[in-house]
Amino acid sequence: MSVAAMEAIGLTRRFGGLVAVNEVNLALHVGELHAVIGPNGAGKSTLTNLLSGELRPSAGKLLLHGAEVGDWPSWRFARAGVGRSFQRTNVLKPMTVRENVRLAAQARLTPLRRYPAVASEEHAPSEAADAALERVGLGGAAHRTAGTLSHGQLRQLEIAMALAAGPTVLLLDEPLAGMGPEESERLALLLKELAADHAVMLIEHDMDVVFAVADRVTVMVDGRVLENGTPEHIRNAASVRDAYLGHAA
């Protein structure tokens, strides 16, 4: 397999005496959707914050395309091709859908020397925003106020905002949370499509979705990796069934 787009080696994060992420090894490859699952408190969101630069590791290494980046600030991760979404929707609801995505694109595509720049004067961010909206299926909603979107559409908008900056790595923290079956199915198909040309890490509690779309699954419990492998391996692993899935899975 090719060199990982992003790789964690012994990645650890401590908060005082609490070890939230404990010597985690994880590799994300372009062309692969890698799901991270586990019970609440397993360290999944802390791991996402480490991979996106929101937190710095206490120990271990974090590599982006082979270069060590553990001490980078979060803005540098975004400019180097790491996009993410959050558990809670993180959009500017009074603005239009297109304005939200265009601002996200501008953050990476506009040279720092041009700030403060008027977003509408920048052609590259506008073009990137339109392309991202089309890809997630929101092209027809570009001029709507973001606050008028459904919950599922807001999740699509967040993914468009991440895509507009041209990432190689996409870190998606529970993007299907709160969705109905029809919206979940539609977004799951989108995630599978995005994995064709991105390294996608998906944190998700819906096991039907995980087993349907993931190429690889990592199970975390108490900050550690319990198991890592194909969906079939994870489904049949006794340790995972005991700790998380249960014996009816």
Describe this entry's structure for a reader.
The chain has a 6-stranded mixed beta sheet, sandwiched between helices. A 4-stranded antiparallel beta sheet has the order 2-1-4-5, covered by helices on one side. The model has no long low-confidence stretch (mean pLDDT 90). Strand 9 (216-221) and strand 10 form a beta hairpin. It has one domain (33-49, 73-245): P-loop containing nucleotide triphosphate hydrolases (Rossmann fold, 3-Layer(aba) Sandwich), CATH 3.40.50.300. By secondary structure, it is of the alpha/beta class. 36% of the residues lie in helices and 24% in strands. The relative contact order is 0.18. It has helices at 44-51, 74-79, 97-109, 123-136, 151-164, 181-194, 207-213, 231-236, 238-245, and strands at 6-15, 18-28, 32-37, 59-64, 67-68, 82-85, 169-173, 199-203, 216-221, 224-229.
Q: What is the averaged pLDDT score?
A: 90
Going by CATH, the architecture would be: 3-Layer(aba) Sandwich
Shape: globular
Structural class: alpha/beta
Helix content: 25-40%
Q: Can you tell me the CATH class?
A: Alpha Beta
Cα distance spanning the termini: 30 Å
Number of domains: 1
What's the total count of β strands?
10
Main sheet, how many strands, which sense, barrel? 6 strands, mixed
- Spell out the helices and strands N to C: EEEHEEHEHHHEHEHEEHH
Q: What is the number of helical segments per DSSP (H or I, 4+ residues)?
A: 9
The CATH homology group name: P-loop containing nucleotide triphosphate hydrolases
* Rg, Cα atoms, Å: 18 Å
